[in-house]
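Researcher: Re-running this chain for the archive, since the previous output was lost when a drive failed. Same request as before.
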Amino acid sequence: MKRRNFLYGGAGAFAALAGSGFFMRNSPGGGATAATFEIMKPDEEWRAILSPEQYAVLRQEVTEPAYSSPLNGEKRAGIFHCAGCDLPLYSSEAKYDSGTGWPSFWESLSGAIGTKKDRSFFMVRTECHCRRCGGHLGHIFDDGPLPTGKRHCINGLALTFNAAEAT
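Model: Regenerated structure tokens:
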């Protein structure tokens, strides 16, 4: 078993415990919500337009369980959008199978995401969020493929997929 797969299996257990209220969560949207975004809505509006699971991921920075998203196996050409505000975030051309259980990309579309330091769970990671609405997407790691060497490990619940039209 690869070390990364072992660690991400543990991350799934952490996510389950966090979702159960065992661990304290950041406030809705964490540090990203403290900033000003193009799209800002009251909490009640976010709850009305997002499913409870999407709300937990996008607004409360919860991580969905590994291998739970149908978008992890999505192989068609197209664009992945923010589930909160529909901003195009990732091209299918940058998607790859990282073996971690979450949709992974080696880069985002230009100007689509913002980042911040995440110091939760006794480690420092780079959190990424939608630059337009501040919705939490996931994290960026330095163990991805060329050409960037980055792995954008993204919650499928934070995304919608628009398939490219056949030509």
